[in-house]
Amino acid sequence: MIDLHTHTLFSDGELLPSELVRRAEVKGYTAIALTDHVDSSNIDFVLPRLVKVCKVLNKRWSIRAIPGVEITHAPVEDIAPLVKLARKLRAGVVVVHGETISEPVIPGTNFYAISAGCDILAHPGLIKEDDVRLAASKGVSLEITARPSHSRPNKRVAALAMKFGAKLVLNTDGHSGDDLISDAQAGALLRKLGLSGSQVAGVFKNSLNLVRKAGF
After folding, report:
1. What is the domain extent for residue 24?
2. What is the pLDDT of residues 15-60, one digit of tens each?
3. Radius of gyration (Cα) for the chain, nearest Å?
4. pTM for the complete prediction?
5. Which end of the chain has fewer CB within 10 Å, C or N?
6. H and E: helices and strands count for the chain
7. Secondary structure (DSSP) of 15-62
């Protein structure tokens, strides 16, 4: 399992980075990204600390720990500068909190996040068709989420991605060890959305390619 959207106690998660990564390793994960919530107030505090701990853990354990961020509820005009800053601060994965059904995310966030070239648009349940086309053209991955509060539009997101050729990834948006899932659970979730075996394999490959791109 590769999971590129999780949270530690540096934002609203329950666990230290080391404990979350350890629990993921025991669960059978091969890679995990620590993508705590950031905006202009804390990105320069959170990200260097995640970079530091991931370097340590990658020397000790076989699982790959990748430092990242989830840019969350930022003014849309600030998304592109924050994406750029995250990469400057060595984020391996840049996630933007998409327009979900369960939170009052600023309209237009999906468009600005994709235009900024983030790696993953998280739980973008309210995404428009034009934005899916844009994601396909820019290589931005749309997230299928295992998190119950965001997951109801998963089938719609998957169908639009397949229709317009956008990349999909599956993440947990995990905030605790109990949120982590196995490969079997991930595959079952994707098949339930109507994806074929080859399409499920493609989703997993998309995540693997992002791990390779991250360079950690």
Report:
1. 2-214
2. 999 999 999 999 999 999 999 999 999 999 999 999 999 999 999 9
3. 16
4. 0.98
5. C
6. 8, 7
7. S-HHHHHHHHHHHT-SEEEEEEEE-TTTHHHHHHHHHHHHHHHHHH-S
